[in-house]
Design a protein that fits this description.
There is one protein chain. This protein has 3 helices and 10 strands. It is mostly beta strands. The chain has a single domain, classed as Purple Acid Phosphatase, chain A, domain 2 (4-Layer Sandwich). The chain has a 5-stranded mixed sheet with strand order 3-2-1-9-10, covered by helices on one side. A 5-stranded mixed sheet has the order 4-5-6-8-7, with no helix packed on it. The longest helix is centred in the N-terminal third of the chain and has 8 residues.
Length: 155
């Protein structure tokens, strides 16, 4: 089994609770709206990080982050983008197993035509009445097991 951590929309805030939920993961994906290079530095203390740029990532520090990323991990093809509305990829023909996205701040797990769509929600400053969350994804020979983790009474 390979466990990966998935986080999005930190907007410059890396909460201490994140480390507890992502401890022991083999890799972390950040689905954009990082907000500060310090967030990535903090996540790299937990595991290697693959991050993409979101709509708030406009500074010079963010220029080297791509808008999308496709990567093989644990024998699975994972595609990461920020806003699912900008998805212009035929995931079936490209052999994508998982699409990771953020932007909406709403955690979501759904499988469409055999592809897992996973939004970890927002781990940054609370917005509206939306939960503060991250996700883990277990990759096994038997399948994919995504879990949304609520970060306690985060405010």
């Amino acid at each position: 089994m390979l466990r990966i951590g998935i986080i999005s929309d930190t907007h410059g805030l890396l909460r201490p609770e994140v480390e507890a939920h992502l401890a022991g993961v083999a890799h972390i994906f950040h689905a954009g709206d990082i907000g500060s290079p310090n967030v990535i530095v903090g996540l790299q203390r937990i595991a290697p990080v693959t991050a993409i740029r979101g709509n708030v990532d406009t500074g010079h520090w963010a220029e080297h982050y791509p808008e999308t990323r496709m990567m093989m991990l644990g024998g699975r093809c994972i595609y990461v983008l920020h806003d699912i509305k900008t998805l212009h990829l035929d995931s079936i023909s490209r052999g994508v197993d998982v699409i990771v996205y953020g932007h909406s701040h709403r955690p979501r797990i759904e499988t469409i035509r055999g592809v897992l769509y996973l939004n970890p929600g927002s781990a940054g400053p609370r917005r509206f009445n939306l939960p503060v969350t991250v996700a883990t994804l277990d990759l096994t020979s038997g399948g994919l097991t995504p879990v949304i983790h609520h970060l306690g009474n985060a405010s």
